[in-house]
Amino acid sequence: MIQSQFLYRVYYEDTDLGGVVYYANYLKFFERARTDYLRQLGINQSQLAKDENLIFVVRSCLINYYSPARLDDILEVKVEIKALNPASIFLNQKIEIQQKLITSLEVELVCVDSVSFRPKKIPNNLKNRLHV
């Protein structure tokens, strides 16, 4: 599957007192990249929730930290789909600065009904877009 990359700048609000990205904020950068990746594939999550009552929720994630990012760094956030199951998507994500690995994430997203939050199969029209 194709890997996509998105660039984000580290702002003051992303850092702790030492000027280093606060550990939980890496998840925000990963989330932004996943959302932008889906948009790039023509999948609008708010429209999906409105029209089909479907949303994607994080079921699990494993994050590893290798080196800190700091104020004003430009983060290269990469997204790659590793596997698709009937109701879930497995992704690998990385944050790099000038090709140096900073953080990595393995995440499982589950497709659920936006009212009941019960798992639902990913519709074929979405699966086809995700097989880029």
Low-confidence stretches: none
Q: Report the mean per-residue pLDDT as an integer.
A: 94
Along the chain, the helix and strand elements come as: EHHEEEEH
**Which fold does the CATH topology refer to?**
Thiol Ester Dehydrase, Chain A
| Alpha plus pi helix count | 3
By CATH reckoning, the class would read Alpha Beta
Quote the beta fraction: 35-45%
Count structural domains.
1
CATH-level-4 superfamily name: Hotdog Thioesterase
Rg of Cα set: 16 Å
**Major sheet summary line:** 5 strands, antiparallel
- The tally of beta strands, per DSSP, is 5
The first-to-last residue Cα distance is 6 Å
Question: Strands of the largest sheet, in order across it?
Answer: 1-3-4-5-2
- Structural class determined from secondary elements: alpha+beta
Q: Fraction of residues in helices?
A: 10-25%
- The best one-word shape is elongated
Assign the CATH architecture.
Roll
